[in-house]
Design goal:
single chain, mainly alpha, 0% strand, transmembrane
């Protein structure tokens, strides 16, 4: 697999994971307004950690959701750092392979 192919796969995955994360934020915001069963924070954070954090960040700002809860914002930041570190390590490993 070439570097270009890997970049394309990464971009597609990030876009898909971001879209799913944004939809989950919207569902959670709607559930919070209706006071019904919500999307667990664990689910929102898991999708953020596997690459959906851009969608979570954008949806959070647009919907004004999960922006005031400091404990969640810290966990979200850890997920972003984790994802960036994994992507960087994978990129470095691949580039060193040849």
């Amino acid at each position: 697999m070439t570097a270009v192919n890997i970049a394309i796969v990464f971009a597609i995955w990030t876009g898909l994971a971001s879209a799913i994360t944004a939809v989950l934020y919207a569902f959670d915001k709607n559930a919070a307004k209706k006071e019904v069963r919500r999307v667990p924070e664990r689910t929102l954070l898991a999708w953020s950690a596997v690459g959906g954090w851009p969608g979570g960040w954008i949806a959070g700002r647009m919907l004004r959701h999960k922006t005031q809860k400091l404990s969640y914002r810290i966990k979200f930041a850890i997920c972003v750092l984790f994802n960036v570190a994994v992507v960087f390590a994978a990129w470095r490993w691949y580039s060193e392979r040849g």
